[in-house]
Specification:
Elements: E1 2-6, E2 9-14, E3 21-27, E4 32-35, H1 43-53, E5 57-61, H2 67-70, H3 73-79, E6 84-88, H4 92-95, E7 124-126, E8 131-132, E9 135-139, E10 148-152, E11 157-159, E12 164-165, E13 171-172, H5 182-185, H6 190-202, E14 207-209, E15 216-217, H7 220-231
Parallel strand pairs: 4-5, 5-6, 6-7, 11-14
Antiparallel strand pairs: 1-2, 2-3, 3-4, 8-9, 9-10, 10-11, 12-13, 14-15
Helix pairs in contact: 6-7
Length: 242
């Protein structure tokens, strides 16, 4: 496991050169928040890094319900039962293995690896604008219907799950990247993902922290370029922002 620190944010990365899977520990004054639970093999690395930081892990936030973001959740909850689990109200259904669409959603099937055996259920269901410690939650549907991103109000760092990727290339969810097309292949709606990408750009993040790939410092211009590239293939180039 590789650890990269940027201020209050600690990026934990497994298989960084082959198939990077990231989790994030966010330091608060007296406690730690984990964003995403990686794969089953991520458990010991998460616990080890939390122990090194010397603060209790009190929150587990999930950006969305795909298996590579929730894989260690059950084992982690057994080890740290006092930690509260958070996920969007919408993607709580995915966490429970339910791929069904709601009446107001696009009729595109939900893609990606949805959990079949996760038994942990969320303690708190998140909505747009909610505060969790130093983080603000933002609804950013596209990769899944209930994907969320989280910005640290102290630093401007933005953790976006799979709304963007930086591995192999910078891309909005839904745009295939050579040699690492998997986030795109698991994207429910590229159109919604593009709308969410522009919303994230408008937050003017100082750091972009993704589910797959390295941290990006001062990311806004790169995010804009990635959004422009994605826009060129959404609806034949029809602009959908604004």
């Amino acid at each position: 496991m590789r650890v990269t620190r940027e201020g209050h944010l600690h990026q934990l990365t497994w298989l960084p050169r082959i198939f990077p899977v990231n989790c994030y520990l966010i330091e608060e004054e007296q406690e730690l928040t984990l964003i995403d639970a990686g794969m089953s093999y991520s458990l010991q690395g998460i616990l080890s890094q939390a122990a090194k930081l010397g603060k209790p892990l009190t929150r587990i936030i999930l950006t969305h319900g795909h298996m590579d973001h929730v894989g260690a959740l059950d084992a982690l909850k057994k080890q740290v039962p006092e930690a509260k689990v958070y996920i969007s109200e919408r993607d709580a259904a995915l966490l429970a293995g339910d791929r069904s669409l709601r009446a107001d959603e696009l009729r595109t099937p939900i893609k990606g690896s949805v959990p079949a055996k996760i038994v942990t259920r969320p303690d708190i269901l998140l909505h747009d604008g909610d505060s969790i410690g130093s983080l603000t939650a933002f609804s950013t549907p596209g990769h899944t219907p209930g994907s969320m991103s989280f910005q640290d109000r102290r630093s401007g760092a933005l953790i976006v799950g799979d709304a963007f990727q930086t591995f192999r290339a910078m891309a909005v969810s839904g745009k295939k990247v050579a040699w690492f097309p998997f986030p795109a292949m698991a994207t429910w709606s590229p159109e919604q993902a593009l709308v969410s990408a522009y919303r994230l750009i408008d937050l003017a993040p100082t750091v972009l922290a993704v589910g797959h790939g390295d941290l990006l410092i001062a990311p806004v211009e790169a995010m804009k370029r990635a959004a422009a590239e994605a826009e060129g293939q959404v609806k034949g180039g029809e602009r959908i922002h604004g």
